[in-house]
Design brief:
By secondary structure, the chain is an alpha/beta fold. It is built from 22 helices and 26 strands. It binds alpha-D-glucopyranose (GLC). Alpha-D-glucopyranose (GLC) binds near residues 58, 205 and 492.
């Protein structure tokens, strides 16, 4: 019998054996040992090699015959292939190799597969953890029906710099909220667990601290204390690991001079050591090879040695492992144990995903057809999109609009379908199923009540369209102006030094405002923009981000009042680029600014700018209003192991039913290290009918008071803590004091 037949027979029998005992142990270690024992060095290094086919999400890769590598068993995974037919064909090729080890297929399913959800930064503004998990679950159901078993998500990078284009991919600036969202997304993607046919492996990225790149310049250096790393940037990664994430991805940046792809501190000490992570780590696109331009590796052979020994298990598009590991092991520069550990981690996931048992389990075209056009998925996308919209201003209560009003919809993004998908949307030839803002408003308000003019482009300088725009504005009762960035202006490799509204769009706003018509502005962006004139002069503003497939319907739901906006910003909006980085959980300093004015009074701040952000973390309005009262603390003293309850009453004092995100912030007033003015430690999103009151209760234990001290010990020190409950980080409505003894 041929080796392969024996091998397959053994794998089949042992997998059946495993499945029968799966409920107890879910261990495949014996099968992995057996496969390892049959593998040549080339085959082992092949498992650590990943390439992209069909399209590239990074710079060109070294030339190589990728299909031959697959056929010769020198490939572990392929990325950027979608569709059960294409995946099946490549899997069939892989099974022709000597041992027929199946491939893993990965893709950036960041915020939806065929049904596109809002960009993650928008989703985070919903503060609805369940809805965020559901969005990831739906993405997994669709992707896994299309041949994929691995998504390069969630991106969990904390970001405090709006110049960085990838701020759109994460959950904003806060560690507590970012950690909850990281875990929710992992659970959504992985569902009932590996082995269920609608689960995909999550990939937590970019490990680590990529969001702190100097100047907001993508791929750039990060320099920070280990304390800041552990307190602010690592917790979302840890939360994802504790949620059972299957894989992690290296980041491009160097951290304190060591490229993440070569950092044994990050990979072996923390992730695989302290957190006991048993999945595998894939590099980012050629990030192992890029240790050469980093000046950390002489050549790709040294890059391979440094990366493998530091704990990076799979080389995405770098060809460093494929071309060098055999020689490095033969010469003893990389131990066979380290190589086998990386192979073992990858094989373990292939077994757990059921790929040995059935390599084609993710390539069922009938399941694919059903999953990709599921109306329930579109409904969930519309719900998430509505919840992601943030009401920035609504002076004179212009919103919600009354039915029957003549509306002029103006702006370069009003009819765009592509732009509604935002950055890192899965690429499709046809996006006509995306509901544009024009379509959504037309459906909701009627063709006869909707006028349209483009007005101008996103970033060109022509004002030729202004006349037509002004004309239809004068014919309407109200104007909706849809302005902002194009989707290509944010995401990867899209850092901006100027965060203003591009082109002549602001001039268009001014021209429309000059008509005297009431105006609603929709801000389309993947990041905080600097839009001071609009913010100061336009009475009604919605931040609509990039809301995905159901963008137009969701915006119509909010504008019509069918849904009362409930979103809250998860990132501070700077007044200008000079104010960056700006974030709510800052230290007080020895000379805190006492007045929010430009000042030269020997206090921190600027002489030419207010100190506060334009819009603070946690901010978002509603069509109704909420009153906070009657705060009560079960005890003003907390001791080790104890729990204190803080409760208050929240009342809907307006005319609309609505939802409010009640936020709990805590400040450690005096400690062995200076502590932030406030830190988000809990929140509750509650629904209240007009006139309804609810009691909201938070539990505080010592974990909510803890921090890393100078020795990097996670401690809670005795002393006074301010307890603050607010509608945003800058709108504290109720306060109390707690003493930890
Ligand atoms: C890109 C991105 C990463 C993505 C990978 C594969 O360069 O940095 O987030 O998952 O390549 O597309």
């Amino acid at each position: 019998m041929k080796t392969k037949t024996i091998f397959h027979l053994f794998i089949l029998l042992s997998s059946i054996f495993t499945i029968t005992i799966q409920s107890q142990t879910k261990s495949y270690e014996k099968q992995i040992d057996s496969v390892l024992s049959l593998m040549t060095l080339e085959e082992k290094t092949g498992q650590l090699h990943q390439v992209s086919l069909y399209w590239a999400t990074g710079p060109e890769s070294p030339e190589g015959d990728k299909l031959r590598d697959i056929k010769e068993g020198r490939m572990g995974s392929v990325l950027n292939v979608k569709g059960s037919d294409k995946v099946r064909a490549l899997q069939e090729l892989a099974l022709k190799s000597r041992l027929g080890i199946p491939l893993l297929f990965g893709l950036d399913v960041i915020h939806g597969y065929k049904t596109t959800f809002p960009i993650p930064l928008a989703e985070s503004a919903s503060w609805d953890i369940e809805a965020i998990e559901l969005a990831a679950r739906i993405a997994a159901i669709e992707a896994s029906a299309s041949g994929l078993n691995w998504t390069f998500a969630p991106m969990v990078d904390i970001a405090r710099d709006a110049r960085w284009g990838r701020i759109m991919e994460g959950a904003g600036e806060d560690t507590y909220l970012g950690s909850l969202i990281a875990a929710a997304r992992v659970k959504g993607f992985q569902g009932k667990g590996f082995g269920s046919v609608d689960a995909v492996m999550a990939c937590v990225k970019h490990y680590a601290a990529y969001g702190a790149a100097v100047g907001g310049r993508d791929y750039n250096s990060v320099d920070m204390s280990e304390r800041t790393l552990r307190e602010i940037y690592l917790p979302p990664f840890k939360a994802a690991a504790m949620a059972g994430a299957a894989t992690f991805m290296n980041s491009f940046n160097d951290l304190n001079g060591v490229p993440a792809s070569g950092s044994s501190f990050l990979m072996r000490k923390i992730l695989k050591g302290e957190w006991n992570f048993n999945g595998f780590i894939v590099s980012d696109w050629a990030s192992i090879r890029e240790m050469i331009p980093h000046g950390f590796a002489e050549d790709d052979r040294e890059a391979a040695k440094l990366a493998l020994n530091a704990g990076s298990d799979m080389d995405m598009e770098g060809y460093c492992y494929r071309n060098n590991l055999k020689d490095l092991v033969e010469k003893g520069e990389v131990s066979l144990a380290n190589l086998d550990d990386a192979v073992r981690r990858i094989l373990r996931k292939k077994f757990e995903m059921g790929l040995f048992e059935d390599p084609f389990r993710f390539t069922d075209p009938i399941r694919e057809e059903k999953a990709l056009n599921n109306p329930e998925h579109r409904k969930a996308a519309r719900d998430m999109a509505r919840k992601s919209i943030v009401l920035i201003k609504n002076e004179a209560d212009l919103l919600p609009l009354k039915k029957g009003q003549k509306i002029a919809l103006i702006g370069p993004l009003a009819k765009s379908e592509d732009d509604m998908l935002g950055g890192w949307a899965v690429g499709w030839d046809d996006n006509s199923d995306v509901v544009s803002q024009f379509e959504g408003l037309e459906i909701r308000f009627g063709k006869e009540n909707l006028l349209y003019a483009k007005g101008c482009g996103v970033s060109d300088s022509s004002k030729d369209g202004f006349e037509e725009a002004v004309k239809i504005a004068n014919e309407a009762e109200v104007v909706i102006l849809s302005i902002g960035e194009s989707r290509s202006m944010n995401g990867e490799a899209a850092s901006r030094s100027n965060l203003g509204i591009p082109g002549v769009q602001e001039d268009l706003v001014k021209a429309i405002m000059a008509t005297g018509k009431p105006v609603v502005v929709l801000m389309n962006a993947g990041r905080p923009l600097v839009f001071n004139w609009v913010a100061d002069n336009v009475p009604t503003i919605l931040y609509t981000w990039w809301l995905g497939s159901e963008a137009g319907n969701a915006i119509a739901d909010v504008i019509s009042g069918d849904y009362n906006p409930s979103g809250k910003l998860t990132v501070s909006f700077p007044r200008n680029e000079g104010q960056i980085p700006i974030y709510y959980n800052h230290f007080n300093t020895g000379r805190p600014s006492l007045k929010d004015i430009p000042s030269k009074d020997f206090r921190t701040g600027y002489i030419d700018l207010k100190q506060s952000p334009k819009f603070p973390f946690g901010f978002g309005l509603s069509y109704t209003t909420f009153d906070y009262s009657d705060i009560n603390i079960s005890s003003d003293k907390l001791s080790k192991g104890g729990v204190v309850e803080v409760s208050l009453t929240v009342k809907n004092t307006g005319d609309f039913d609505g939802e409010e995100v009640v936020q709990l912030y805590i400040r450690d007033c005096v400690a062995s290290l200076v502590r932030p003015m406030k830190e988000l430690k809990d929140f509750k999103k509650i629904a209240l009918k007009s006139g309804e009151s609810k009691k909201v209760t938070f539990k505080i234990d010592e974990q909510k008071l803890a921090f890393y001290n100078e020795k990097l010990e996670w401690v809670t020190e005795p002393g006074k803590f301010d307890i603050m409950i607010g509608s945003s980080s800058a709108d504290i409505r109720q306060q109390s004091v707690l003493y930890f003894e």
